From TrEMBL, chain A:
Residues 22-300 form the DNA-directed RNA polymerase RpoA/D/Rpb3-type domain. This is DNA-directed RNA polymerases II, IV and V subunit 3. Belongs to the archaeal Rpo3/eukaryotic RPB3 RNA polymerase subunit family. Gene3D superfamilies: DNA-directed RNA polymerase, insert domain, RNA polymerase, RBP11-like subunit. It is found in: Nucleus. NCBIfam families: PRK00783.1. One of its GO terms (biological process) is transcription by RNA polymerase II. Keywords: Acetylation, DNA-directed RNA polymerase, Nucleotidyltransferase, Nucleus, Transcription, Transferase. GO terms for molecular function: DNA binding; DNA-directed RNA polymerase activity; protein dimerization activity. It comes from the Eukaryota.
TrEMBL record, chain B:
Signal peptide: none annotated. It comes from the Eukaryota. It comes from Glycine max. The gene is LOC100779425. It is an enzyme of class 2 (transferase). It holds the Pfam family RNA_pol_Rpb2_6. This is DNA-directed RNA polymerase subunit beta. Residues 728-1102 form the DNA-directed RNA polymerase subunit 2 hybrid-binding domain. Residues 67-457 form the RNA polymerase beta subunit protrusion domain. The keyword Lyase does not apply. DNA-dependent RNA polymerase catalyzes the transcription of DNA into RNA using the four ribonucleoside triphosphates as substrates.
C-alpha cells in the first residue's frame, strides 16, 4: 500500500446466494483485517437467546438432571428480538435475577409417557411464554407432512411411566461466553485466487501430460477444452491453495507452468446459521456490532458520556 | 514370511516324505479317491474373494458362538458337571477310631468305630432366604448379590453315609473259606442322608446362573465369567503351569529325564551319574540311576523288579541300537553298577527285596509292600508291570538320545509344555483344602461321641458347612489361594477384582494369564516371547515392571480346552479302530518299526503305519467323531504319535485348505461355527500340533503369484491380526507404530479410558464409576471390531437367536486433530482444545461415587433415652458437619447438592454420640441414589451415590489410540483457531514433535483414512498387518477433494492471513483417561501435622501437605532461591525453637522454678549452670529437636556452639 494514502476504505458487497440459514457473498476493496473481524464478530459476539437456567421438578428418565439441562441449553431458539433485549445482569427491571420480560423468556416442558411405545421428547414439546422466541423449526416446508419431517431436536426418550417436568429460563448472551449463544454454525472466507497459465509452457506438454496435470488437482479447477485441446480455468474459486498442481508441475519439470496469486482485497464469505438468526440478519447484526465497537473506541476518552449516550452499547461492551 | 510353523523333522524328510506328510491333512472321505482334487485346484475353483469372504464370515461366527470369555465359563461348567464329584470322590472313606481311653469306656465292653462315606453331589441354583419367620426362598440374581453385598453361591448337597460299628470276630466253616476266623462289622447304627456341606460361589452366566437363560439381560455389556463374593466382583487369572504328564529332559545341573507328578510318590527321575570307583575315573564312564520313592537305585535293578528276565531284553527294550559307543559304555557301566550294589538281582525276587530294603530305610517309608508300591506309584496311568518296564525303557532311551545330541532338551517356556489352570483346576485345589479341614473337624467331633455313654447324633451335627463356605469366601476376598504343590503355602495373583472403567478393560482382565515365579528379577527366558506364543497369547500386551512378560493376554481367537479325558473310554476304541494296536503285556516281544501312541502322556499302544493312523484320526476329528479339542501330534523323529485331550491347552481356529470345497455346499444357510467344525472346514489347532501345520498367514499367500505357488499350505489363518490380543487388535494401523506405543495403548490407556461402562446403572453401586456422555465409534474399522461389534439388526428383533451381547470396545470420541504448534501452549505433549467443542458436550463425563455404611435398626429397643440426647437430623445441627440436606431418617433426598463437610449418612449411637459419615474436603456432588439393604447375615447397610458431571479442564489427560497421551494445556476460543476454507476448526491441536521420537505414523494414517471415510470413501479397514497402503489412502483423499497427504491450507484465526505452511488435519479417535486434575488438585494453608514429628501429613485425603521432593530442592538450589527453599522446608514445615545455654553449650529446659520473694516464674533455665543468664533461643526444625531429645534419652548428650548474629 502506498505511503501517505488515506486508510479510508469503500468495501463493496455482492450477494451470490441467500437462504434462511445460508449466505454466500463477495467482499471487495478491503483487506483481511476487516474480513476477519467480521468473521469473528459473527461467531462470537452476535447475541442470541438460549436457555440458561433449568429448574427440574420431576425427572424419572434415564438421563440425569445436568445432562438434560445441558441438552436444553444447546437448542437454538429464534432470536430476532435478541438485539433489542437486555442482558439479564444489566436489567434494572428485575434487579438482576433475570426473571422479567425484558431480559428473559420462560419455557415449560411437561411430558409423561403413558403408552408402551417409547416417547421422544423433542424441542417441539417446549412451550414458550413469548411466541417470538421458540425452538427453531427444522422441518422442510416443501415436503409433505410425514412423521420424519415433523420432528424437532430430541431431548430425551421416555418409556412407560417415566416423566419429565421442568421450567427453563432463556436469556440473552453472546458466543464468547458460551458456545450455545453462537448463532453461526460456521463462518469462513477465502481469498479469491488469480490464476494465470503460461501458455508457452503448456504447449510443450502432450495431451496425456495435460490430462495428468489437470487430474492432479483434487478439486476441479482446470479442464481441457475438447475442441482446441487447450487447458483452461473452469472454476477458479474451487482452488484450495493446496499446491498440488504446483508440485505436479515441478515434478514434470515445468516449474512455472501456472501462477496462482491470492488477491488481498477480495474475499468470498460463506455464512451458515444455526437457525436462531437468519443468515442475512446475522451479517447485518455483525456489522451493527462492529460499528458499535468502533464507536466505543472513538468515545472511550469520555467514559461517563459514553455510558449516558450509549447505554445499551456500554452494556454490550461490558458483556464482551 | 509366508507361513508360520515348521515341521521339526523337516531336515530328515525328503521331498517324497514331505509330500506324504502334506497328504496327512486331506480327508479320505472326500468321495471318489480317484477324482480327489489337489489344493491348487481347490483354490483355483473357489477364487480369492470367496475365500476371503468365508474367512470373515467364519470369524464372525466364531465370536458369535464363543464370545471372548468362553474359556472361563466352560471351565466352571466342566467343574460343576464333572470336577466337583471327582473332588469329593478323591477322598476315600473316613474311618474314625475311638480314643481307647479305658476310663471312658462305659458300660459297653467294646470300643465303637465309625465310618463316613461321601456319595453323590448335587448343586442348586443360587437362592436366598426371605428373612426370619419367612421360610420361602427366592431366586438370587447377580444384581441382588451385588447390591446386598451377598455371595452369589449355590448350595452343595452331598449324600453322606455314617456307620457306627464294632469289629467282631466271626467263626466260619474252615473247609469253605479256608480260614477259621475273620473280622466282620457288627453295625450298631447306620445313617444315610443328603446334607448341605457348603456353598460354592457361582460364576455369572454359567450353567448354574439364572442369567444364562434369562429373557432380559441385566446389563447388555455383562458377559459373565466372574464371581460375586460379598458384593465384590472377582475373577480368576488363568495360571500358567508346567505340564506334568510329559517327560522332561534336562541337562542342568546334570543330565536327567524326569517323570513329574503333583504327588511326590509318583515322581521318577533317571539320572546320568558319575562312576564312584576311583580306578575307572580315567574312562569317564557314567551310569544310569533312578530316583523314586525317595531312594536312588540302579536302573537295572528296577528293570528286573518290573519283570524283565534278561539283560538282552533290557537292551532290546531301550532300542537305541548298537552303533554308538558312548551309549554302549553307559549301559555297561549301569550293569556293572547294579552288579556291585546287588549282586544277585537277576535271580528270583532279589531285585524286589533289594528295593524293599532301600525304600523301608527312609525316614517316612510307605506302608504298602514293595509289590504294591510298584503297581500304585510307578507310572500310575499304566497298568501291568511289563508295560511299566517298557515305559521305563522309553525314558532311558529319551535320556540317551538327548545325551548323544539326537534329541533336544525340553524348553520349559514352550507353550506345548504349558497348561493353563482356570476355574475347574483352581476351585478343585481350594476346595480340597477345606474339605480336608471339615473332615478333620468331623473326625474329632465324632471321636468324642464314640465313647460308651454317648449317642452318635445326626450327621449335620458333625459336618460344619461354614468351613467350606467361609473358606472359599475368604480365599476369594483376600486373594490368597492354595499353592499347587506346597500344602501349607498360599499364593497371590490368582484372583483379581473385575475392573469396570469400561467394557474393554473388563474383557481384557478376564482374558489374562499369569505365570508364577519364585523370585522376581531375573527369571531367565520366562519373560521373553516364545515362537509357540504365536496366535495363543499376545506378544505385545504385557505390563511393565516386575510382571513384565509373566502376565500375558490371550490372543483374540484363543480358546482354552477343557478336560475331555472322561471320554478316554470313548477315545481309546476310536484309536483301535483307526489302526492302533494294544501294547503287549510282556517284555520280550519286539515292536519292530511300529510307532508309539501316547494318550495324555500315557503309552497306550503302537501303530504300524503312523501316517495313515494320524490321517484317519484327523479325518474323524473333522467329522466330529472325535472331540474337536483333541490334539494330534505326529513326531516322526521320535517315532511317536502323541494325543492330548486334557484341560488347559490353548487352541485356535484355522482354516483347512483341503476342505475348502465344502463351503460351496453351505450356500447361505450356514449360521453356526459348529457346523464349520463338523464339516472339517475349520479345526482347532493346539500348540504342539501346529508345529506340523504349514499355515498361510493370509488368504493372499494361498493365491500366490504365478511363479511363487511352490509352497503347499495345509492351513490358513482367518485373519492376520488374530495373533494379537483383544486390546491390540483394536488399535488401527498397529503395525505402523512402534511396538511400545501399541503396548501403552493396549495395556494402559484402553484400561483408563472413560467410556460407557454399563447399560443399567440402577443395579450397580460401584464405589467409583465413570460414564462418557456422548461416546462414539471410530470411523475406521478393524477385523476384530467388525466381528465383535453390535449386530446391525439389533432393534430387539433377533431375540430368538442366542448371540451373546456385544460390549462397546471403543471408549472415546472422534476429534478433528490438527498437527500444529499453537502459540507454544502445546509443548511437552500438551494439547490445545477448542473451548466451544467442550461447551457443546465433547468429552463431557459423569462420575458416580458411592458411600456405604452399616446401620442398625434400634426401634425395638425398649430403652428410654433422654430427649436431649436424641439427634434429630434435619432440625438440629450435628456436631461434625452440616445436615441441611438430610431427611428425618438420616439420608439425603435425591437431587440434593452436597458439598464437602456435609453429612451424607446420619447415624447416632445409643449413647447419643454422632457417628455420621461426612464428606471429605475433596468430595462433593448431587445425590443420585439412596439404597437401603441387608445381606444374608442380617446386617443392614445403606449406600448413597453422589454424581458429578465434569467437562474437561486444564490438566485433564487424553490419549489417542496410538499411545500419544497428553494433558490439556490450553482452552482456546473457536474464533482464534486456524480455519479452513470450509470453516473447519480443529477440536484438538497436537504438537508435531510428538511424532518423530515416538514413531507413531499410525496416528497420521488413521487421520488421513478417517478424513477419506468422512467424505464418503469406501476404504474403511485399518486392521493391523492388512492395512491399506499409503497409495490407496492418498487416492481416496484425492477423490474426496483434498490434498493427497492430508495437508490443508488454513487461515490465521486472529488476523485472517493465510498461513504459509500447509497443516495436517483430520479426524482422530481420542480417549479421555480417568486421570483428572480435579482429583489431584491440592492446596493447603494450614492443616494436620504428624503428632511425633510435627510435620505435615502426607495424603490429599487427609488434608496433607504438598510433597517437596529432592529434585524440587535441587531445582531451587540451582536457581539460587535460598529464601524460597528456607520457607518451603522450614517455615512451612516444622519450624520450632530450642533454648541453649551459651556458657556450657547444653540444652536448657523451660521449667517453672521459684525465685526470691516466694513467687514462681516460668522460663528457660540451665540446670548445669543453675542460672538463666546465658540462655539463647535458636530456631531449628522440630525433627532436629526430636533427634536431640531421643539421643538424650539414650544417654547421649549433644552440645551446641552458639554465636550471636
Amino acid at each position: 500500500m502506498e505511503g501517505g494514502v488515506s486508510y479510508a476504505r469503500m468495501p463493496r458487497v455482492k450477494i451470490r446466494e441467500l437462504k434462511d440459514d445460508y449466505a454466500k457473498f463477495e467482499l471487495r476493496d478491503t483487506d483481511a483485517s476487516i474480513a476477519n473481524a467480521l468473521r469473528r464478530v459473527m461467531i462470537a459476539e452476535v447475541p442470541t437467546v438460549a436457555i440458561d437456567l433449568v429448574e427440574i421438578e420431576v425427572n424419572s428418565s434415564v438421563l440425569n438432571d445436568e445432562f438434560i439441562a445441558h441438552r436444553l441449553g444447546l437448542i437454538p431458539l429464534t432470536s430476532e428480538r435478541a438485539m433489542s433485549m437486555r442482558f439479564s445482569r444489566d436489567c434494572d427491571a428485575c434487579d438482576g435475577d433475570g426473571q422479567c420480560e425484558f431480559c428473559s423468556v420462560e419455557f415449560h416442558l411437561r411430558v409423561k409417557c403413558m403408552t408402551d411405545q417409547t416417547l421422544d421428547v423433542t424441542s417441539k414439546d417446549l412451550y414458550s411464554s413469548d411466541p417470538t422466541v421458540s425452538p427453531v423449526d427444522f422441518s422442510d416446508p416443501s415436503a409433505t407432512d410425514s412423521p420424519d419431517n415433523n420432528r424437532g431436536i430430541i431431548i430425551v426418550k421416555l418409556r412407560r411411566g417415566q416423566e419429565l417436568k421442568l421450567r427453563a429460563i432463556a436469556r440473552k448472551g453472546i458466543g464468547k461466553d458460551h458456545a450455545k449463544w453462537s448463532p453461526a454454525a460456521t463462518v469462513t472466507f477465502m481469498y479469491e485466487p488469480e490464476i494465470h497459465i503460461n501458455e508457452d509452457l503448456m504447449e510443450t506438454l502432450t495431451l496425456e501430460e495435460k490430462r495428468e496435470w489437470v487430474d492432479s488437482s483434487p478439486t476441479r479447477v482446470f479442464e481441457i477444452d475438447p475442441v482446441t485441446q487447450q487447458v483452461m480455468v473452469v472454476d477458479a474459486e474451487a482452488y484450495t491453495y493446496d499446491d498440488e498442481v504446483l508440485k505436479k508441475a515441478e515434478a514434470m519439470g515445468k516449474p512455472g507452468l501456472v501462477e496462482i496469486i491470492a488477491r488481498q482485497d477480495s474475499f468470498i464469505f460463506t455464512v451458515e446459521s444455526t437457525g436462531a438468526v437468519k443468515a442475512s440478519q446475522l451479517v447485518l447484526n455483525a456489522i451493527e456490532i462492529l460499528k458499535q465497537k468502533l464507536d466505543a473506541v472513538r468515545l472511550s476518552e469520555d467514559t461517563v458520556e459514553a455510558d449516558d449516550q450509549f447505554g445499551e452499547l456500554g452494556a454490550h461492551m461490558r458483556g464482551g | 514370511m509366508g507361513h508360520v510353523g515348521s515341521s521339526k523333522d523337516g531336515t530328515e524328510a525328503g521331498p517324497s516324505a514331505a509330500a506324504m506328510g502334506i497328504d496327512d491333512d486331506e480327508d479320505i472321505d472326500l468321495g471318489d479317491v480317484d477324482l480327489d482334487p489337489t489344493n491348487a485346484e481347490i483354490l483355483e475353483e473357489l477364487g480369492e474373494d470367496i475365500v476371503k469372504y468365508w474367512c470373515k464370515k467364519a470369524s464372525m461366527l466364531f465370536f458369535n458362538e464363543y464370545g471372548l470369555i468362553s474359556h472361563q465359563i466352560n471351565s466352571f461348567n466342566h467343574f460343576i458337571h464333572t470336577g466337583l464329584q471327582k473332588t469329593f470322590e478323591s477322598f476315600g472313606d473316613l474311618v474314625v477310631t475311638p480314643g481307647f481311653d479305658p476310663s471312658k469306656k462305659g458300660e459297653n465292653e467294646h470300643f465303637r468305630y465309625a465310618s463316613v462315606k461321601f456319595g453323590n453331589v448335587k448343586l442348586d441354583k443360587p437362592m436366598f432366604w426371605g428373612g426370619e419367620g419367612n421360610a420361602q426362598e427366592f431366586k438370587m440374581l447377580p444384581r441382588h448379590a451385588r447390591i446386598q453385598r451377598m455371595t452369589y453361591a449355590s448350595k452343595v448337597k452331598i449324600q453322606v453315609k455314617v456307620q457306627v460299628y464294632v469289629p467282631k470276630k466271626v467263626r466260619s466253616d474252615k473247609f469253605k473259606t479256608g480260614k477259621a476266623e475273620f473280622l466282620d462289622r457288627e453295625v450298631m447304627k447306620e445313617d444315610e442322608r443328603e446334607i448341605i456341606i457348603g456353598r460354592l460361589p457361582v460364576m455369572v452366566k454359567s450353567d448354574l446362573c439364572w442369567m444364562k437363560e434369562a429373557e432380559k439381560e441385566d446389563d447388555e455389556f455383562d458377559h459373565g465369567g466372574y464371581f460375586i463374593v460379598k458384593g465384590a466382583e472377582k475373577t480368576f487369572i488363568a495360571q500358567e503351569q508346567l505340564y506334568l504328564k510329559r517327560l522332561w529332559v534336562m541337562n542342568s545341573p546334570g543330565w536327567m529325564i524326569a517323570y513329574k507328578s503333583q504327588m511326590k510318590r509318583n515322581r521318577m527321575v533317571i539320572k546320568l551319574v558319575g562312576n564312584s570307583r576311583g580306578e575307572e575315573v580315567e574312562n569317564g564312564d557314567m551310569s544310569l540311576a533312578v530316583y523314586f520313592l525317595s531312594v536312588e537305585v540302579p536302573v537295572w535293578v528296577l528293570f528286573f523288579a518290573l519283570g524283565v528276565s534278561s539283560d538282552k531284553e533290557i537292551v532290546d527294550l531301550i532300542g537305541c541300537g548298537n552303533d554308538d559307543v558312548r551309549i554302549q559304555n553307559i549301559l555297561f557301566a549301569s550293569v556293572r553298577d547294579a552288579d556291585e550294589k546287588c549282586g544277585a538281582f537277576r535271580r528270583g525276587r532279589h531285585a524286589v527285596q533289594y528295593l524293599e530294603k532301600c525304600v523301608k530305610s527312609v525316614q517316612f517309608p510307605p506302608s504298602e509292600s514293595m509289590q504294591e508300591c510298584l503297581e500304585m506309584y510307578v507310572f500310575p496311568g499304566i497298568s501291568g508291570l511289563n508295560r511299566k518296564a517298557r515305559f521305563l525303557a522309553y525314558m532311558v532311551k529319551g535320556l540317551l538320545l538327548a545325551y548323544t545330541g539326537r534329541r533336544k532338551c525340553d524348553n520349559r517356556d514352550d507353550f506345548r509344555n504349558k497348561r493353563l489352570e482356570l476355574a475347574s483346576e483352581l476351585l478343585d485345589r481350594e476346595l480340597k483344602v477345606h474339605i480336608a479341614h471339615a473332615r478333620k473337624r468331623m473326625a474329632k467331633a465324632l471321636q468324642r461321641d464314640l465313647y460308651g455313654d454317648r449317642d452318635v447324633r445326626p450327621i449335620e451335627h458333625y459336618l460344619d458347612a461354614s468351613i467350606i463356605t467361609n473358606g472359599l469366601q475368604r480365599a476369594f476376598s483376600t486373594g490368597a489361594w492354595s499353592h499347587p504343590y506346597k500344602r501349607m503355602e498360599r499364593i497371590s495373583g490368582v484372583v483379581a477384582n473385575v475392573g469396570r472403567t469400561n467394557p474393554l478393560q473388563t474383557m481384557a482382565e478376564l482374558r489374562r494369564a499369569r505365570q508364577q515365579v519364585q523370585y522376581t528379577g531375573k527369571v531367565g527366558d520366562a519373560r521373553y516371547p516364545h515362537p509357540s506364543h504365536w496366535g495363543k497369547v499376545c506378544f505385545l500386551s504385557t505390563p511393565d515392571g516386575e510382571n513384565c512378560g509373566l502376565v500375558k493376554n490371550l490372543a483374540v481367537t484363543g480358546l482354552v480346552s477343557t478336560d475331555v479325558s472322561a471320554v478316554s473310554e470313548y477315545i481309546l476304541p476310536k484309536l483301535l479302530d483307526c489302526g492302533m494296536e494294544e501294547l503287549v503285556d510282556d517284555t520280550s516281544t519286539h515292536l519292530g518299526n511300529k510307532d508309539k501312541v501316547l494318550l495324555n502322556g500315557d503309552w497306550v499302544g503302537v501303530c504300524p503305519d503312523s501316517s495313515s493312523f494320524v490321517a484317519e484320526l484327523r479325518s474323524r476329528r473333522r467329522r466330529n467323531e472325535l472331540p474337536h479339542q483333541v490334539e494330534i501330534k505326529r513326531d516322526q523323529s521320535q517315532h511317536e504319535v502323541r494325543i492330548y485331550s486334557d484341560a488347559g491347552r490353548i487352541l485356535r481356529p484355522l482354516l483347512v485348505v483341503g476342505n475348502l470345497l465344502k463351503i460351496k455346499g453351505f450356500k447361505s444357510d450356514c449360521n453356526s461355527f459348529q457346523s464349520l467344525l463338523d464339516k472339517g472346514v475349520i479345526e482347532l489347532i493346539g500348540p504342539e500340533e501346529e508345529e506340523d501345520c504349514c499355515t498361510a498367514w493370509g488368504v493372499e499367500y494361498l493365491f500366490g503369484k504365478e511363479g511363487k505357488r511352490s509352497v503347499k499350505y495345509t492351513h490358513c489363518e482367518l485373519d492376520m491380526s488374530f495373533l494379537l490380543g483383544l486390546s491390540c487388535s483394536l488399535v488401527p494401523f498397529a503395525n505402523h507404530d512402534h511396538a511400545r506405543r501399541v503396548l501403552y495403548q493396549s495395556q494402559k490407556h484402553s484400561s483408563q479410558a472413560i467410556g460407557f461402562s454399563t447399560t443399567n446403572p440402577n443395579i450397580r453401586v460401584d464405589t467409583l464409576s465413570h460414564q462418557l456422555h456422548y461416546p462414539q465409534k471410530p470411523l475406521f474399522r478393524t477385523m476384530a471390531s467388525d466381528c465383535l461389534g453390535k449386530p446391525d439388526n439389533s432393534l430387539g428383533q433377533n431375540k430368538i437367536s442366542k448371540i451373546p451381547p456385544k460390549a462397546e470396545f471403543y471408549n472415546g470420541q472422534n476429534a478433528i486433530v490438527a498437527v500444529n504448534v499453537h502459540l507454544g501452549y502445546n509443548q511437552e505433549d500438551s494439547l490445545v482444545m477448542n473451548r466451544a467443542s467442550l461447551q457443546r458436550g465433547m468429552f463431557r463425563s459423569e462420575h458416580i461415587r458411592s458411600y456405604k455404611s452399616e446401620i442398625d435398626n434400634k426401634e425395638s429397643s425398649d430403652k428410654k433415652r433422654k430427649p436431649e440426647d436424641i439427634v434429630n437430623f434435619a432440625k438440629l445441627q450435628s456436631k461434625i458437619g452440616r445436615v441441611d440436606s438430610l431427611d428425618d431418617d438420616g439420608f439425603p433426598y435425591v437431587g440434593a447438592n452436597l458439598q464437602s463437610g456435609d453429612i451424607i449418612i446420619g447415624k447416632g449411637a445409643e449413647s447419643g454420640a454422632d457417628n455420621s459419615v461426612k464428606l471429605k474436603h475433596t468430595e462433593r456432588g448431587y445425590v443420585q441414589k439412596v439404597v437401603l439393604s441387608s445381606n444374608d447375615e442380617g446386617k443392614n447397610f445403606a449406600v448413597v451415590s453422589l454424581r458429578q458431571v465434569r467437562s474437561p479442564v486444564l490438566g485433564d489427560k487424553f490419549s489417542s489410540m496410538h499411545g500419544q497421551k497428553g494433558v490439556l494445556g490450553f482452552l482456546e476460543s473457536q474464533e482464534n483457531f486456524p480455519f479452513t476454507r470450509q470453516g473447519i476448526v480443529p477440536d484438538i491441536v497436537i504438537n508435531p514433535h510428538a511424532f518423530p521420537s515416538r514413531q507413531t505414523p499410525g496416528q497420521l494414517l488413521e487421520a488421513a483414512l478417517g478424513k477419506g471415510i468422512a467424505c464418503g470413501g469406501i476404504l474403511r479397514q485399518a486392521t493391523p498387518f492388512s492395512t491399506p497402503s499409503v497409495d490407496a489412502i492418498t487416492e481416496q483423499l484425492h477423490r474426496a477433494g483434498f490434498s493427497r497427504w492430508g495437508n490443508e491450507r488454513v487461515y490465521n484465526g486472529r488476523t485472517g492471513e493465510m498461513v504459509r505452511s500447509l497443516i495436517f488435519m483430520g479426524p482422530t479417535f481420542y480417549q479421555r483417561l480417568h486421570h483428572m486434575s480435579e482429583d489431584k488438585v491440592k492446596f493447603r494453608n494450614t492443616g494436620p501435622v504428624h503428632p511425633l514429628t510435627r510435620q505435615p501429613v502426607a495424603d490429599r485425603k487427609r488434608f496433607g501437605g504438598i510433597k517437596f521432593g529432592e529434585m524440587e530442592r535441587d531445582c531451587l538450589i540451582a536457581h539460587g532461591a535460598s529464601a524460597n527453599l528456607y520457607e518451603r522446608l522450614f517455615t512451612l514445615s516444622d519450624s520450632s525453637q530450642i533454648h541453649i545455654c551459651s556458657k556450657c553449650k547444653n540444652v536448657a529446659n523451660v521449667i517453672l522454678r521459684p525465685v526470691s520473694g516466694g513467687r514462681k516464674i516460668r522460663g528457660p533455665y540451665c540446670r548445669h549452670c543453675e542460672s538463666a543468664d546465658d540462655i539463647v533461643v535458636a530456631h531449628v526444625p522440630y525433627g532436629a529437636k526430636l533427634l536431640c531429645q531421643e539421643l538424650f534419652s539414650m544417654g547421649i548428650n549433644l552440645k551446641f556452639e552458639t554465636q550471636l548474629c
